[in-house]
């Protein structure tokens, strides 16, 4: 056990953020560099080393959290990194981006603030990179088998790294111009600087993984060609079909899906543009959708110099404490203030968009909304509550409905979809087509980064067993596993 009295004597402290006035002028991560290391060992010492560590249940990767908490408390950073990497290929991604269901399941969290598991995780991996403890792990021998991975998000990268280390020759196909999927172009730089992706890609290249960017399977290369070239295929193309808002005025200029808006800001940081083709500068911005993607739009709009930012959510405002319907150790729906929300703007709950209003040139100018409430379990509009708000840029951040079928990938392979529009798979993550597997949001539906990595690792085991008859690779989850929800 780290510190037997740590949870009694040490209060919860989290990473320090830079002043708002400073950070909205740049795209760097919002946290003060190095602010965690002076406090993180004591924070790790708050871990109770429970007899039954429910944090394991909260985390689909099965991270060995009490073990690396103990090493971090003792400042044995090398051992902590080894235990961290035993279950997670990319802890610097999850340590920055995961909403930490492990903390919701922390036993200490029953009646005290939970252990800062996410902060401990990111401290361990950052320390490991600084100490040059993260090295390529090339296979001892090659199997002679080849695997294509379609998509370079967290699921695709995890599957590719596991299969490469198992000795297979792996090629990752990415339709964008850079590797990373939504990590690259969906996550703003202020949440995770892309240097973290770049050095993982270099590690994977050194291990033997090959990457092909600017290639869309279904359009630039057919499924038939891919199956001829490779012994197995992993589809990790994500759930990229965005949910739309079919109301009057949707066709007006200035209304964009979040994933049309966010990547352009990242491309500015990459040096592709001097200024984003879609920008919030000087505009009244409305973000429709109250989730993490919506918050990303809010933070991006602040940095682009928006005149105002309003975020709309159709559901009621969540509470700040667990309610009886979301008991520990489930992941509760709580009111969350992200770094983007700290920077300004207004959040409006229980409202629905009725239509958009434009000017003579076809540019959106106003958004009309109405308050809603649940009556007998049904969402109902409240008469007399209609109003309009200025809206010169609107981003739709309402989630995703399934994988892309327009590019021909699904039809060319002949993949069967389940009742939710995701690619169907069996217990080994295999599709209905021999040798074709699916991992991540393409099979699970829109989910969290930690589930994507777990899916990639599990699918890799299925592929390895298909190619060789057996596998020693771990499979942390089954396709049917779900989050600890009520």
UniProtKB/TrEMBL annotation:
<keyword id="KW-0560">Oxidoreductase</keyword>
<dbReference type="InterPro" id="IPR006005">
    <property type="entry name" value="Glut_synth_ssu1"/>
</dbReference>
<keyword id="KW-0314">Glutamate biosynthesis</keyword>
<feature type="domain" description="Dihydroprymidine dehydrogenase">
    <location>
        <begin position="40"/>
        <end position="130"/>
    </location>
</feature>
<dbReference type="InterPro" id="IPR028261">
    <property type="entry name" value="DPD_II"/>
</dbReference>
<dbReference type="InterPro" id="IPR036188">
    <property type="entry name" value="FAD/NAD-bd_sf"/>
</dbReference>
<keyword id="KW-0028">Amino-acid biosynthesis</keyword>
<dbReference type="Pfam" id="PF07992">
    <property type="entry name" value="Pyr_redox_2"/>
</dbReference>
<dbReference type="InterPro" id="IPR023753">
    <property type="entry name" value="FAD/NAD-binding_dom"/>
</dbReference>
<dbReference type="InterPro" id="IPR009051">
    <property type="entry name" value="Helical_ferredxn"/>
</dbReference>
<comment type="pathway">
    <text>Amino-acid biosynthesis.</text>
</comment>
<protein>
    <submittedName>
        <fullName>Dihydropyrimidine dehydrogenase subunit A</fullName>
    </submittedName>
</protein>
<dbReference type="Pfam" id="PF14691">
    <property type="entry name" value="Fer4_20"/>
</dbReference>
<feature type="domain" description="FAD/NAD(P)-binding">
    <location>
        <begin position="146"/>
        <end position="456"/>
    </location>
</feature>
<dbReference type="InterPro" id="IPR051394">
    <property type="entry name" value="Glutamate_Synthase"/>
</dbReference>
């Amino acid at each position: 056990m780290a510190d037997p009295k740590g949870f009694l004597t040490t209060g919860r402290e989290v990473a320090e953020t830079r002043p708002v006035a400073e950070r909205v002028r740049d795209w760097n991560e919002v946290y003060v560099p190095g602010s965690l290391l002076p406090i993180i060992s004591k924070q790790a010492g708050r871990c109770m080393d429970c007899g039954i560590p429910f944090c394991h249940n909260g985390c689909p990767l099965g991270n060995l959290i009490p073990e690396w908490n103990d090493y971090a408390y003792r400042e044995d950073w090398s051992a902590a990194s080894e235990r961290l990497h035993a279950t997670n290929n990319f802890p610097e991604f999850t340590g920055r981006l995961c909403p930490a269901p492990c903390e919701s399941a922390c036993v200490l969290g029953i009646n005290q603030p939970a252990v800062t598991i996410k902060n401990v995780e990111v401290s361990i991996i950052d320390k490991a990179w600084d100490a040059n403890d993260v090295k390529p792990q090339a296979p001892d021998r090659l199997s002679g088998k080849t695997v294509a991975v379609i998509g370079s998000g967290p699921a695709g990268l995890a599957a590719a790294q596991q299969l490469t280390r198992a000795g297979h020759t792996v090629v990752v196909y990415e339709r964008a111009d850079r590797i990373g999927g939504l990590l690259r172009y969906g996550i703003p730089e202020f949440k995770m600087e892309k240097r973290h992706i770049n050095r993982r890609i270099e590690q994977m290249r050194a291990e033997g993984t090959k990457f092909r960017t600017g290639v869309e399977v279904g359009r630039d290369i057919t499924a038939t060609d891919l199956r001829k070239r490779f012994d197995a295929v992993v589809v990790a193309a994500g759930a990229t079909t965005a949910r739309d808002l079919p109301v009057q005025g949707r066709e007006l200029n200035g209304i964009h899906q979040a994933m049309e808006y966010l990547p352009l800001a990242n491309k500015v940081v990459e040096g592709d543009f001097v200024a984003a083709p879609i920008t919030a500068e000087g505009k009244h911005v409305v973000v429709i959708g109250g989730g993490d993607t919506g918050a990303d739009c809010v933070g991006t709009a602040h940095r682009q110099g928006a005149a105002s930012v309003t975020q709309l959510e159709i559901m009621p405002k969540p509470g700040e404490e667990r309610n009886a319907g979301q008991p520990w150790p489930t992941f509760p729906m709580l009111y969350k203030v992200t770094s983007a929300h700290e920077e300004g703007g207004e959040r409006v709950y229980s409202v629905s968009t009725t239509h958009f209003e434009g000017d003579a040139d076809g540019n959106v100018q106003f958004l009309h909304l109405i308050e809603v409430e649940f009556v007998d379990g049904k969402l109902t509009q409240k008469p007399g509550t209609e109003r309009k708000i200025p809206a010169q840029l609107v981003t739709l951040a309402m989630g995703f409905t399934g994988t892309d079928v327009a590019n021909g990938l699904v039809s060319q392979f002949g993949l069967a979809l389940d009742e939710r529009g995701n690619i169907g798979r069996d217990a080994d993550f295999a599709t209905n087509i021999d040798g074709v597997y699916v991992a991540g949001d393409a099979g699970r539906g829109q989910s969290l980064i930690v589930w994507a990595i777990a899916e990639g690792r599990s699918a890799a085991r299925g592929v390895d067993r298909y190619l060789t008859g057996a596998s020693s690779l771990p499979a942390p989850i089954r396709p049917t596993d779900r989050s600890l929800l009520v």
